[in-house]
Amino acid sequence: MTTFFTSATSATSTAQAASILSERRRTGTQGERLPESCRPGDLAAALAIQACVTAELGATVRAWKCGTPSEGKLVIAPIYTIAQAEQGHCQVWNRMGQVRIEPELAFVLAQNLPVQTEPYSNEEIDAAIGSVHLALELIDSRYTSPESVSFVENLADGLLNQGLFIGPQISAMELSAVHAGAREHLCIDVHTGAQATKQFKGRHPDADPRIPLYWLVNYLRSQGQALLAGQAVITGSYAGSFEVPIDAEITIGFGGLGVLQVRFSTR
After folding, report:
1. Most-buried pick from 6, 130, 229, 233 (CB within 10 A)?
2. CB within 8 Å of 121: residues ≥ 6 apart
């Protein structure tokens, strides 16, 4: 994977941090924040560690998570593990019988978006999208207390991602409504076995969920990184994050867009 930009952090420190985080990913363990000797101090260092984790794992980047950047923050991370709705179940790391999820839309590319000199237009990026699906980002951290570490430390660890569950494809009509902003708000209904249904008044952070995708494509292009056909991109939660039980039938309604069903089991 291409390193995003040069960091003042030494290659030795980057490799040390990546070794710790990649081993925790392999084993599903959590631990204290990184040692001060290899702790990232800026965005460049964090992204260098991200890239090194990918190399340490020997993993294929199957998807990306992203969000609109803000002052001092870049929301971008590779995703290595994907489960599909057709499988009916999804394996996750078990945290006290629960898994944390975020309801999102996943854009699956049908065409490569190779590195080129000129920025891609929104229309060119739209044309590369093959399908859009209901999806769940699967949340987990390699830190015992991710809320107590800095943003760049979480960025180095892939922004609390452990994988992605891709659900049913949404219709062309509903996709048009999403693009037009008519689906800015979604009623997210979560039913978990015998428990009462939870309801969230969902809203995408950018109204149009393609906005972070447009940013991601051109950011990666500027860093010499292509996006490939078959990769998925998620761009922000409609209802924050929340926990659901493992080994229960989970049904999540995405307003008028459709319904996603899944059963989580222990990895």
Report:
1. 233
2. none
216 membership: H or E segment, kind and range: helix 211-222
What are the pLDDT digits (tens) for 215-267?
999 999 999 999 999 999 999 999 999 999 999 999 999 988 999 999 999 99
Asked whether residue 158 is assigned to any structural domain, the reply reads: yes
Provide the token pair at 205.
């952070």
Cα 148 to Cα 31: distance, rounded to the nearest angstrom = 12
Contact in structure between 76 and 44 (CB atoms under 8 Å)? no
Domain assignment present for residue 133? The answer is yes
Q: Which residue has tokens 């059963």?
A: 263
CA distance 24 to 143: 9
Indicate the number of domains in the chain.
1
* Beta pairing partners, 12: none
Rounded to the nearest angstrom, the gap between the alpha carbon of residue 245 and the centroid of all alpha carbons in its chain is 20
Q: Which domain holds residue 88?
A: 60-266
Distance of CA 223 to the CA centre of its chain: 19
In CATH, what number is assigned to the domain containing residue 90? 3.90.850.10
* Residue at 246 is within a domain: yes
User: Phi/psi of residue 34, each to 5°?
Assistant: -60, 150
